Amino acid sequence: MAEQRLLFVCLGNICRSPAAEGVFLHLIAREGLEDRFVVDSAGTGGWHVGNPADRRMRAAAERRGIHLPSRARQIELADFSAFDRILTMDDDNLRNVRSLARELGDRPGLARIEPMTSHCRRLSASEVPDPYYGGEQGFEQVLDLLEDACAGLLESLLREQR
Ligand code: 4NP
User: Measured between alpha carbons, how far is 148 from 99 in angstroms, rounded to an integer?
Assistant: First the structure.
C-alpha cells in the first residue's frame, strides 16, 4: 500500500506545526502504523530555519509524553509535489500556502491543502491559534486542538486507505 505523505504548516515552524507533526507521529507509533505515513512540517516564514521547536512547546508536549523532533524549515514549491496533503494551522497560513500553490498552476498530482481544524471531532475551532506571544495556556490549547485533529485526520486517512 502506498504511504501517505503529510506536511503540517504554520508561520514559524517552531510551535504549532512541529507539535502537529509530533502528535501525529506519536499516534501512528502507538498504532504501529509508522510505515504507512511520511510526516513533516514547515513554516511559511523563514526566521527560525534550523531551530528546534520552541522550548515552551516542547515542554508542554513532553508533559503529555510527546516528543517533538523537528528542526524548522520554510515551505518550498517542491513540497506541493512531495506531499499528498498540506494541513495549515490558521487562515493566514492557508491563504499563504494557497497563494504559493497558484505559482504552480493547475498541474495534476499536487498536494491537497486543508485547514487542520477541519479534522477536529470533539472540539470546535476554525484555527489553531498562534501561541508564540501568549502564556502557557496557549500551548496547552494548541495541543488539545492538535490531539483532537490528528486523531480525526488519522481516522479519515485510514478509511481512505481501506
Ligand atoms: P508558529 O508560532 O507559527 O506556531 O511556529 C510562531 C513562531 C514564531 C513567530 C510567530 C509565530 N515569530 O514571529 O517569530
Answer: 27
Half-sphere exposure of 148 (CA within 13 A, CB side): 16
For range 21-34, the mean pLDDT: 98
Find the Cα–Cα–Cα–Cα dihedral 62, 59, 146, 110, rounded to 10°: -100
For the segment 21-33, the average pLDDT, to the nearest whole number, is 98
- Is the pLDDT at 1 greater than 90, yes or no? no
Residue 56: name the closest of 132, 130, 128 by CA. Answer: 132
Q: In testing the pocket of ligand 1, which one of 8, 9, 10, 11 has its CB within 8 Å of the most ligand atoms?
A: 11
Class of the CATH domain delimited by 4-161: alpha beta
Whole-angstrom Cα distance, residue 35 to residue 31? 11
State whether the beta carbon of 21 lies less than 6 angstroms from ligand 1: no
Residue 12, beta-bridge partner list? none
- pLDDT mean over 35-48: 98
Answer whether 0.85 is exceeded by the pTM: yes
| Domain residue limits, the chain | 4-161
Report the chain's mean pLDDT, rounded to a whole number.
Answer: 97
CB neighbourhood size of 35 (10 A): 9
